[in-house]
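hi got a favour to ask and not much time before my train. below you get a single protein, a line of residues and a line of whole numbers that encode the local backbone shape. could you go over both lines and see whether the tokens make sense for that sequence. a few lines back from you is plenty, here it is:
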Amino acid sequence: MAERRSGGAEAVARLSEWADAHLGLLRSLSTGMAVAGVLVLARSVRMTTKFTRALDIPVEFVEKNVKLRGKLHRITEKGLEVEHIPISIPFITAIQRKWQSKGLLLVRLAGVELAPSGMAWLQQELKPQQMIWFQLLGREDLALECLVLVNKGRFLSMCLNEEILRQGLGRTAHIKGLHHDSRLYWKLHKRLLQAELKALKKNKGIWQEESYSERIRDRISNNKFVQALKQFVSWLRRSV
């Protein structure tokens, strides 16, 4: 029994000696762990912060194209008015709710020029209080340029930007907020163009209307009476 106690005391003594010899290392480790804890806490606070204005969103969120979650409130000509729903973490979220302000984010469909029929389609497709995801691509005029996604079933989602173009309810446009020569810009622009091309090939939406008007113009221009009238007008101008 005495031997066990002496062995335990010796182990404690050696541990103390090692700790004294490596005191600087232990202090560095404890400092590093404290800094890491602060960084994790700071990141958690940012991820759980409720953004009520476009300018409140950190620049790095936009640059890294972070995907945020929100609740739809209204659909207007300027875009979608969305209430940001941040990640919920116990204790941190409870504290933040006491000082968070109220407000809605203005989310626009990046790379899409909506037709009037597109606005009507959005109002039918989306319901008030519906949860959506919006991936940040840029920020301009206090609005957010985003890819907007809605869940369609348990494992499927639909990108509204592409679907509007696929249905012929809008035209592709410049993706504001992304550099024109960036790989991401051309990757997304290609996706949008492919969606628009499908509508064009099937004469859907605005492309059906334009195709019909073009056919009418062709019929008028190919009409024999119209051709004869044009010839008479040109002869009359030469005669005068």
